[in-house]
Amino acid sequence: MQLASETLNLTPGTIHLISIICALSLVALMAVLPNLLVGVLLYPVSLATALPLMAVLNDLHLIPLKPFAAWLLLSILSAAAGVGAALLTLVAGNRLAGMGVAWRVRALSPPVSIRHVSVHGRGERD
């Protein structure tokens, strides 16, 4: 914790708040995630995105609000961006896995060629 606090120039309270927001949002999204392991793997991705983003936004001083309001707003925005990046990682991973499965199926199945298709009507019943 001290290394992250000194490296990113963030207070431990800020790191704790962003960690809690990311964890609660991933718990809320657990219903749409495939399994618990995916949620556990997405949590570090969300933190790895949210904490540096908070440090950059904090250094730029973009929000001309009172210090507490700016701190809270930037914490929530960076945590939301971290969760968004985690969900994009999930979508990209599912897409890559689907492409890999489709490639394996295509490689294993023999090519099928259809020469002629004819469709006959039933006609009238007797």
Mean pLDDT: 82
Distance between the termini: 85 Å
N-to-C SSE string, H for helix and E for strand = HHHH
CA-based gyration radius: 25 Å
What is the overall shape?
elongated
Compute the number of helices.
Answer: 4
Give a description of the structure:
- The protein is elongated, with a radius of gyration of 25 Å.
- The chain has 4 helices and no strands.
- The mean pLDDT is 82.
- The longest helix is centred in the C-terminal third of the chain and has 42 residues, at 67-108.
- With 126 residues, it is mostly helical.
Secondary-structure topology with pairs:
Elements: H1 2-8, H2 12-28, H3 36-60, H4 67-108
Summarize the structure.
The protein is mainly α and 126 residues long. It is 72% helix and 0% strand.
Tags for this model:
126 residues; mainly alpha; 4 helices; 0% strand; elongated
